[in-house]
Amino acid sequence: MSAVAEISALSLRYGRVRALAGVTLSLPAGRMVGLIGPDGVGKSSLLSLLAGARRLQEGELRVLGGDMRDAAHRRRVCPRIAFMPQGLGRNLYPTLSVFENLEFFGRLFGHDRAERERRITGLLARTGMSAFRDRPAAKLSGGMRQKLGLCCALIHDPDLLIVDEPTTGVDPLSRRQFWDLIEDIRRDRPGMSVIVATAYMEEAARFDWLVAMNAGQVLATGTPADLLAHTGSATLDEAFIALLPEEDRRGHTRVVIPPRPPGAEIAIEAQHLTMRFGDFTAVDDVSFRIGRGEIFGFLGSNGCGKTTVMKMLTGLLEPSEGEARLFGAPVDPRDMAVRHRVGFMSQSFSLYTELTVRQNLDLHARLFGMEPDRIAPRIAEMADRFDLTEVLDGLPESLPLGIRQRLSLAVAMIHAPEILILDEPTSGVDPVARDAFWTILGELSRKDGVTVFVSTHFMNEAELCDRISLMHAGRVLISDTAAAVITARGAATLEEAFISVLREAIGEEPAAIPSGQMAVGHTAPASVFSLRRLLSYSGLEALQLRRDPIRAALALVGSLILMFVIGLGMSFDVEELTFAVLDRDRTALSRDYALDLSGSRYFHEEPPLESYDDIDVRMRAGQLSLAIEIPPGFAAAAERGGHVEIGAWIDGANPTRAETVSGYVQGIHADWLMRKARESLGGAASQGNFDLVTRFRYNPDVKSLVAVVPAVIPLLLLLIPAILTTLSVVREKELGSIVNFHVTPVTRLEFLLGKQLPYIALAMLNFVVLTAFAVFVFRVPFTGSLPALSLAALLYVTATTAMGLLISSFISSQVAALFGTAMLTMIPGVQFSGMIDPVSSLQGAGRLIGEIYPTTYFIIASRGAFSKGLGFADLGQSLLALAVVIPVILGLGALLLGKQAK
Amino acid sequence: MNLSHIAQLGLKELRGLWRDPVMLILIVYSFSLSIYAQSNAMPEALSNATLSIVDEDRSTLSGRIAQAFYPPHFVAPRMISAAEMDRRMDEGQDTFALVIPPDFQRDVLAGRRPALQLNVDATRMSQAFTGSGYIQQIVASEVAEYTARYRTDAGMPVGLMLRPRYNPSLDPGWFGAINSVIQSITMLSIILTGAALIREKEHGTVEHLLVMPVTAIEIMLSKIWSMGLVVLLASTFAIVVVVEQLLQVPVQGSIPLFLVATVLMLFATTSMGIFLATVAGTMPQFGLLMILVLLPLQVLSGGLTPRESMPDIVRIIMSAAPNTHFIQLSQGVLFRGAGLDVVWPQLLALAGIGAALFWLALRRFRAFLA
Fold first, then answer.
1. What's the whole-number mean pLDDT along residues A653-659?
2. What are phi and psi of A868, to 5 degrees?
3. Model-level pTM?
4. How far does B122 lie from chain A, in Å, by closest CA?
5. Which of A841, A856, A858 is the best substitution to test chain B (most B C-beta atoms within 10 A)?
6. Whole domain around residue B196: which residue ranges?
7. Sheet containing strand B115-121, strands side by side
8. Residue B31 counted as domain residue
């Protein structure tokens, strides 16, 4: 038996967490190999190493006959491997349509238009998705999204298909169809090896060869029959438990829930519940009755309406139609008494991670209004019952998933509710912990008479419920005991019974194309640089931008708003300053003096002052910026040529304004003196020995806007494009689609340039809008060469978008990206680039940053072209500086961006 | 509404914050070092201005003039030729260029009033005005000193005595310190409530609260009191220790009155944080939205440049912003020593704006949770 992958002593760590601990394994070629085990045992880590998406740490790994440490080998085999990561549609782009998603992958693998069209049409027909060609991926059901993910993985006819938990959260029928599809494709391509991870043991029974994993290690390998025979078990679930080391198995018993004593009281009743969100009906006419103490199971795919039903039962949502009743009383969201009778454990709730176990229990007890002296005993009781005593003072995050789920249940039970509503409480939990959890549920129901309403994806859990309902697309399809469902459908297992119910509800599967029609053509080996791959990412980015109007709108409108704000806010001319006069002279001359002030456009005169106290009071109240005191005998002294002083009190609370006021008042005072001197001396008066002729160049009227606006444009073209490009890469990292970059032949430079192009276009559009706004709205005169400024802008936004890419190469969360980019661009942009203080007047580090920061050169170009009448020849140096900086930034970005995840 | 619920949930928020070292460091930093640094970094009106001199006279007097310019107001001037001047100004290397004509010294001594030419790059508004004033004074005093032994000038008949009040040396760091305290108050109260709310939504813990017997208004009030308390304590520390003690800014008025106003301000800004979070929904959108809101709040509320310089429409719109009133009030109370009799309109405005924002946020918050 030849091997598709040879693994020896492979280890992997994430910080202090060990994901793989010395795995040695040989995976057979041409088979369907399954990795089984609960969440967090290292399945996904192993698969991503096999796909070349993650960098090897310790150990050796050979895939398709070559060493995966060798970058050249990875590049060679990359087009022969396909990888579909975990999670619904993680490798897809939700806003793109089915066809656009497929086309993106086709381009990445170098297919021309005709080839793409042929392959996509073939794959869609094959998977029965032709009718959904133009539907956005986000609007597909879970099962369809997984099929599309598979199509994307298969577009280049891989020899090795790696699929990570493709059916988690998908309804039983779609699950069945998915595996049929894979088998069908394997019939066409018998040489293809498939490696699959799954948490559903029922599915694993169909695979050719299994690897059971726990805690980063391999427990056992072999065919399903081997594993069952070896452990002497009837099902793979039991076999897996038997394979676990002794300490993990300790205390495990099979779940046995005794039969329910008959009782007539109805605990939960739903009557024709309907919920509509806009024109989408999430829940359609759902009715059921659940008796006190019953365990009622709810099954269905993600997004079928289960959670919505639960929210209506707890009063979180008000139904559009119908009614929910608890113990005979209608559920009223405003009635707090109802909530005391219900305990809820939501799918996403993982407790307050910042509070300890005890604090979590305590908080909930208090919120439910328990008597303070009863709280401590109750916490002790719950800790004892749910086996939490030892971890009471630990933080939830330090606990294993299984214990955390028990804690969530304890929190939901703290106030001794009569009804428990649990939304997928055991997803991702290992079989031993799941059995312990269900043992507790059994006790609660049978001993304490608690009614349990629980949703699950696991068939063996569904069989433990007293009754089960199957929900699909907002409707309950069947509701009965497990045995009755199986008998009614004449099926062998509960899963088959459900599949037949679903098939009946949805209609027959679309006809599949007969085998042998699609495996044609060959994917070319990856070249070193491909314009098609580059443009493939550009097209992707442009489409996403078009489909997310908020982002583009924030970029365009936001920058206009900011320009407006800064343009107005950074104004240096101050008008309408309030002043009042304390005229203790009351002569024609003193009135003449005051008239000069009130006549200027800078000052606005308030009612005259009466006394010194008046100055105090009114200035303290902020009514006056300036108070002028003209002393008694002012006119007489001035006539005589004697010395007299006018007092000017200035409100110094805001020093900027005070400086302006003192400048204005000094100017007006000097003018008044000159005028008086000319009047009395007939023009012969002269002061000083020379004249200083001041020429205000480039901005003769000395307007703030003319000075500020040409410097604001560079700042905005820095901040917003950089944030957008950073986010465009970091989003992919956070949402998971970055894996497409890791496992397809696209190179780092193609990826970066491809991502950059649409944002350069957007930034240039932004430049046009801002410039037009400056010229036509702010009326800033444009005196230089527009083509020269446009060229400078093009170079500049190429550099600023590249800076975003550079930043994104070392940041991985969106919030950090936002604040990081703002910090790394705003401070140098505002303070070191000559926007306010010229670079030449800076010192130290600020000076150095200013000298190399691209914004410095674009501010020179922008001011030059707007105000100084400069053209190409004059701006040559700035253009050159901008052109030189681009390859430096892009090169650094490409160096820092790993082609593999770390 | 149950006061015990509000108290318990608020305690939960405080415990959560206590376990978030990054946020704690950010809070401490923004109310201590950041204020200290910003206040000290506030440049004087003119610093390190670049000046070139075209000296066509090359006399003793022109040499003295050239030597009269030195740091911190000016960098040491560069002597250039007339041909270089235009290029250097075009390239933005010089803000000022002073041209001293041939025979300047001789003409001055002969009383012929020769003209000096000062070229100013008026696109650099921050330096253009004050700089040319300084240059005029410096040149005048050099010339006067040089010619003193030949002639004496009569003093001005009417003098102007400038008396800046509340900040006699017009040290921009005083107001800068208060302004950065206000900036920190605004920014942190918005981030603490808004980002925390979005994080809770993303982790699904808000939804969980709603199945318990607590109401939306209780959740909101618990966030407002707990985060408001944190920012209030931090800003008290900032005013009493950093501003008064470390920066030695004399505070004239009543600090308790200022703190009462801070409480009202926090009521408004924490409500605004919750409102923004409910509008944004996701963290990146919240971040962009926050920048779009914070920047105008800071630039247009009178903290950076005087409100008098803004167009009426902006002033009217900004009178709906809590910052505008809070800045007016802080100036009045802290520097001018104004009492309740003077600042009651601002207190009233803050309370009104706070109530309106709270009501808006509560309406959105209920929809946000559904």
1. 81
2. -105, 5
3. 0.79
4. 5
5. A841
6. 3-42+168-369
7. A691-697, B115-121, B96-100, B51-55, B78-79
8. yes
